[in-house]
Amino acid sequence: MTASEQAALEVPITAETLLLAFVVKWKGRWTPKEVPSRRRWLEKNGFFLSDAEFEAALERARVRFYDRAAELFVCRSGPCRERSDFGPAHPAFSVGAGGCAVTATECHGLCESAPAATLRVGNRCRVYSEIKDAAGWDATLDYARRAATAGTLP
Question: Can you give the pTM of this predicted structure?
Answer without folding.
Answer: 0.88
